[in-house]
Amino acid sequence: MSGQAVALFNAQTAVDAMTSASYHMSHVKSHHTVQSVYTESAGTLTALVMVLEGSLDNRGVTDANATWVTMATSTWDGGEITALAATFVVPDQPFKRVRVRVTTLTGEGSGDTLTTKYIQGAI
Asked: pLDDT tens across 27-71, in order?
């Protein structure tokens, strides 16, 4: 269903090198949108890099055993860090399973959280 939002991180405690559970679609989707909001509690965000990964493996394959491919990398710029929010769109990447990895996170503090939603299709 195009436009359906699914939380990959739902107010997840923000730490460097975290990976969401995967979201499996019933059939291949080619357009993907990721929206993220960072909430500061004790820290001051200075850098955030997120990677959207895709897989064509079936539902029965565990995340650990799936073959993951980098679809896109989002490095938050100054405006996104100031706003504590970012959206990125990935067109023309046919996958039926997605997840998000945080590869760089600096300036996080105790109680800081990250909420990331995946939307099937472009918005």
From this structure: 899 999 999 999 999 999 999 999 999 999 988 889 999 999 999
Contact call for residues 23 and 84 (beta carbons, < 8 A)? no
**Domain range spanning residue 72?**
5-120
**DSSP string for 87-108:** EEEE-S--EEEEEEEEEEEES-
CB 35, CB 50: distance < 8 Å: no
Cα distance between residue 101 and residue 94, in whole Å: 19
For 73-99, the pLDDT digits (tens) are 999 999 999 999 999 999 999 999 999
Provide the b/e sequence for 10-22 (b: ≥16 CB within 10 Å): eebebeeebbbeb
HEC string of 57-70 equals: CCCCCCHHHCCCEE
Specify the number of domains making up the chain: 1
Instruction: Identify the CATH number of the domain in which residue 109 sits.
Output: 2.60.120.380
The model carries a pTM of 0.91
